[in-house]
Amino acid sequence: MNNFKFYSINLFLIICFSGNLLAQKKTEVHLNNSSEVWKVLRTLKYEAKSTGIYQPFFSAEIEKLSGKKVTLEGFMVVIQHEKKPKYFMISYYPINSCFFCGAAGPETVIEVMSQKPVAFTEEPIAMTGILRLNAKDENKLFYILENATPVE
Fold first, then answer.
1. Neighbours of 112 (CB within 10 A)
2. Residue 107 DSSP symbol
3. Fold of 38-150
4. 111 beta partners
5. What is the dihedral of CA 97, 35, 74, 70, to 10 degrees?
C-alpha cells in the first residue's frame, strides 16, 4: 500500500510540474522573442559628439536585425498629447526610468510608427513591425519600428 501512495504522489507531482512547464512555455513564447531582441538592441555602443548628439556604433549582431520583422514589448511613451497616437515610443524601462526621464540610455527606446492608432496605456504593450536602424538623422532615435501593429 505504501508503494502505491508513493507512486501516486510522484505521478501527481509529475503531472502538475509538466502542466506548469507547458503553461510557462505558451506564455513565454512572445516574451522570449521580445526579450531576445531587446537583449541585442541594448548592447549598442555609442558616444557623445562635441555637439552633445550621440553617435551610434551598430554591431554586426544589431545590423542582422535591420529590416527584419520583430516584436518588442515595453512601455508606451507618447510624443504628443494624444490618447490614441500612431507615432510614439516604446521604452524597455517604465517611464520614470526611461532614457528621457531616468538614467537609461538611448539604446533602450524605439520610435514606433503604427499602422493604426494605439490607445495609450501605462501597462506594457507589444508591437510587431520592421526594425530600421538610424545613425544619420539626429531628429530620430537610433531604432525605429515601422509599419507596426499591436500584438493582442
1. 27
2. G
3. OB fold (Dihydrolipoamide Acetyltransferase, E2P) (2.40.50)
4. 89, 144
5. 140
Ranges of each domain in the chain: 38-150
The pLDDT tens digits for 67-119 are 999 999 999 999 888 899 999 999 998 876 666 666 777 889 999 999 999 99
For residue 79, give the nearest of 93, 91, 71 by alpha carbon: 91
What mean pLDDT comes out for the span 16-35? 42
Where do we find the cell 516574451? 31
Please state the pTM of the whole predicted model.
Answer: 0.74
77: burial class by Cβ within 10 Å (0-12, 13-18, 19+)? buried
Closest CA to 109 of 151, 49, 56: 56
The contacts of residue 140 (CB under 8 Å, 6+ apart) are 111, 134
Retrieve residue 65's grid coordinates. 536585425
CB atoms within 10 A of CB 140: 12
